[in-house]
């Protein structure tokens, strides 16, 4: 379990969204955090791919290396 402190304005916005969507605050925060982490992982994978391409790897090689790095990250 994680506790998060929010400023009053953010908490009011979260409460309003929860009421409007018929969801709990926890559901909204979990969904937002999941989306953030997925976007961050996608950004890191693309950054790795671009770095590999810049180093002279071809696109297929860069994609394969990016996938293997992503698999290694998930395993750790």
Structure commentary:
By secondary structure, the chain is an all-alpha fold. The protein has one domain (8-75). It is 80% helix and 0% strand. The protein is built from three helices and no strands. It has helices at residues 8-21, 25-54, 59-75. α2 crosses α3 (59-75).
Structure summary:
The chain is an all-alpha fold. The protein has three helices and no strands.
- Content-based structural category: mainly alpha
- The residue fraction in helices comes out at over 70%
- Rg for CA atoms: 18 Å
Q: Would you report the number of β strands? A: 0
Distance between the termini: 21 Å
User: Which spans of ≥5 residues are poorly predicted at pLDDT below 50?
Assistant: none
Instruction: Report the portion of residues in β strands.
Output: under 5%
Q: What order do the SSEs take from the amino end to the carboxyl end, as H and E?
A: HHH
Biggest beta sheet attributes: none
Q: Treating each run of at least 4 consecutive H or I residues as one helix, how many helices? A: 3
Tell me the count of domains. 1
Instruction: Please state the average pLDDT score.
Output: 84
Shape: elongated
